[in-house]
Write a structure and sequence with these properties.
Length: about 110
C-alpha cells in the first residue's frame, strides 16, 4: 500500500482532533477505518506518528515533522481545481526533464 492524499487527510484530522473517534466523526467514517489507515501509514513510514493513551492521542516527534507536510499537501489539493481553471498563457515554455536532458547532451 502506498500513502495517498486521503491518508494524509486522516492523519491531519486525528492530529487536530486529538483522537481517532473524534477524527472519525469529522471525517464521516467509523473509528476502525481511521485506526486502520493510521496504522497502515505508520507501517509504510516505519514510524509511530502518535502516542496513544486512554484519553486520546498526541503526536510523536515523527508525527510533528509530518503534520506540516500533510497540511501543505491538503492545501495544494484544494487549490488545484482553481489553478487549473485559471485563464491566460503560460509565461515560459513547458518542457519535461527528459527533453531538457536531451538538449543538454546534444
Amino acid at each position: 500500500m502506498y500513502m495517498d492524499a486521503a491518508d494524509l487527510k486522516f492523519f491531519e484530522q486525528v492530529a487536530q482532533s486529538g483522537g481517532m473517534s473524534r477524527a472519525a466523526e469529522k471525517l464521516n467514517t467509523v473509528q476502525s477505518n481511521v485506526t486502520r489507515r493510521i496504522r497502515a501509514l505508520e507501517s509504510e513510514l516505519n514510524v509511530s506518528l502518535f502516542n496513544r493513551t486512554g484519553r486520546g492521542v498526541s503526536l510523536t516527534p515523527a508525527g510533528e515533522r509530518l503534520l506540516p507536510f500533510a497540511i501543505r499537501v491538503a492545501r495544494l489539493i484544494d487549490e488545484a481545481p482553481a489553478r487549473s481553471a485559471m485563464t491566460g498563457t503560460p509565461r515560459a515554455a513547458l518542457s519535461s526533464a527528459r527533453s531538457r536532458r536531451r538538449r543538454r547532451s546534444a
